[in-house]
C-alpha cells in the first residue's frame, strides 16, 4: 500500500449529519489539530451540515469549508458513490435533490427495520432516530442500537450477521443512475468526482468502462489519493485521469475516531504531474469573491 501523510486539504470526510460520529465543532477542532486548512464536508446525500455550520458561524477563521456531498448512484447494477464539490447548497434545485434522497433513504430504513423485526429482533425505531440525530437513520445507527440494546456483541458482528452484503438487512435502495447523479451536481454548480474507485472491486476493463461512462456523462474528477489504494491501481487511475482530462482528488473518508489507522487529513500523496480539484476550488473562491 502507499504510505499516508498529513495534508492541508481534506476533501472527503463525514460528520453526524450522515454516518460520521463527530459533531461539526468536534470535526473542525480535529481538522485544526491535524493541520487541515481546507475541508470539504462530504456527508452522504446532503449539504445540511455545511448549511448548519455557515448559518451558525461554526467555521473557524483559519479553516475554509467547501459545500459538498457524497451521492449514491447506480452504474451497471452496482452502487457507487460520487462526490460533488462546490455545490450551491442553498439553491432550491439542490434542496429538492436532497429531499428526493431523504425519501429514498427513509424507505430503505423502514424496510430494514421491518425485516429485522420479522426476524425476531427487538428494534426501537425512535431510539435509532435519536442515535442518528441530526442526520437521517442509516445502517450504522441500527447496528449501534443493536449493540447498545445487548442484542449483538459489537458493530462488526451486526454487519456480519444482519446488515452486511448479502445479509437480511442488505436492502438495495433505488438510487438514481450515474448520469442523473452527475447531472444533479453539475446543475447545482459543482463538479462530480468518483469516490474511492479502488473499493468497487472492478476488473481493469470494468474500471475503464466506468471512467469512460462517467467522463461522457460530464464527470470532472476522480479520487486517486485514497487510503489503502494499491500502487498499481493509483498509477492506473492517474493514467485514466490524464486520458479523460479528469481532475484528481483525494481524502481520508474520515468517519470515526476509533479507526486509529485512519486520521482526518492523512492519506497518500497527491500526484504532482496532473491537475487537481484543489485548483478548481481555489478558482471558484476567486470567482465568488468578485
Key terms for this structure?
290 residues, globular, DNA polymerase, domain 1, alpha/beta
Can you walk through the features of this model?
With 290 residues, this protein is α/β, with parallel strands linked by helices. The protein folds into 2 domains: 5-99 and 176-289, TIM Barrel (Alpha-Beta Barrel); 106-163, DNA polymerase, domain 1. 42% of the residues lie in helices and 17% in strands. It has 10 helices and 9 strands. Strands 2-3-4-5-6-7-8 form a 7-stranded mixed β-sheet. Strands 1-9 form a two-stranded antiparallel ribbon. α4 packs across α5 (139-148) and α5 packs across α6. The radius of gyration is 19 Å and the shape is globular. The model has no long low-confidence stretch (mean pLDDT 95).
CATH superfamily of the largest domain: Metal-dependent hydrolases
Taken in chain order, the helices and strands follow as EEHEHEEHHHHHEHEHEEH
The total tally of domains equals 2
Class inferred from helices and paired strands: alpha/beta
> Can you count the beta strands?
9
Poorly predicted parts: none
CATH domain fold name of the largest domain: TIM Barrel
**What topology, given as strand order, has the largest sheet?**
2-3-4-5-6-7-8
* Total helical elements: 10
Domain Polymerase/histidinol phosphatase N-terminal: 9-75
GO molecular function, one term: 5'-3' RNA exonuclease activity
InterPro entries: PHP_dom (IPR004013), PHP_domain (IPR052018), Pol/His_phosphatase_N (IPR003141), Pol/histidinol_Pase-like (IPR016195)
Protein name: PHP domain-containing protein
Amino acid at each position: 500500500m502507499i504510505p499516508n501523510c498529513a495534508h492541508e486539504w481534506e476533501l472527503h470526510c463525514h460528520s453526524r449529519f450522515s454516518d460520521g460520529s463527530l459533531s461539526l465543532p468536534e470535526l473542525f477542532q480535529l481538522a485544526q489539530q491535524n493541520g487541515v486548512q481546507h475541508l470539504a464536508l462530504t456527508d452522504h446525500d446532503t449539504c445540511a451540515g455545511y448549511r448548519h455550520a455557515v448559518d451558525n458561524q461554526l467555521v473557524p477563521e483559519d479553516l475554509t469549508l467547501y459545500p459538498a456531498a457524497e451521492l449514491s448512484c447506480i452504474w451497471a447494477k452496482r452502487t457507487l458513490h460520487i462526490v460533488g464539490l462546490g455545490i450551491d447548497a442553498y439553491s432550491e434545485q439542490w434542496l429538492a435533490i436532497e429531499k428526493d434522497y431523504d425519501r429514498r433513504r427513509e424507505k430503505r430504513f423502514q424496510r430494514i427495520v421491518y425485516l429485522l423485526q420479522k426476524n425476531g429482533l427487538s428494534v426501537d425505531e425512535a431510539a435509532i432516530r435519536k442515535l442518528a440525530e441530526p442526520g437521517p437513520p442509516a445502517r450504522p445507527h441500527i447496528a449501534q442500537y443493536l449493540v447498545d440494546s445487548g442484542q449483538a456483541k459489537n458493530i462488526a458482528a451486526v454487519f456480519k450477521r444482519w446488515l452486511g452484503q448479502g445479509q437480511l438487512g442488505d436492502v438495495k435502495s433505488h438510487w438514481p443512475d450515474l448520469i442523473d447523479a452527475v447531472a444533479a451536481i453539475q446543475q447545482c454548480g459543482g463538479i462530480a468526482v468518483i469516490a474511492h474507485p479502488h473499493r468497487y472491486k472492478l476488473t481493469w476493463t470494468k474500471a475503464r468502462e466506468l471512467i469512460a461512462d462517467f467522463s461522457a456523462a460530464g464527470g470532472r474528477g476522480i479520487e486517486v489519493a485514497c487510503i489503502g489504494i494499491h500502487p498499481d491501481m493509483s498509477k492506473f487511475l492517474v493514467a485514466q485521469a490524464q486520458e479523460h482530462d479528469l481532475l484528481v482528488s483525494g481524502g481520508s473518508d474520515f468517519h470515526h475516531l476509533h479507526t486509529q489507522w485512519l486520521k482526518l487529513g492523512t492519506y497518500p500523496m497527491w500526484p504532482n504531474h496532473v491537475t487537481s480539484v484543489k485548483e478548481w476550488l481555489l478558482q471558484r473562491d476567486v470567482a465568488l469573491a468578485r
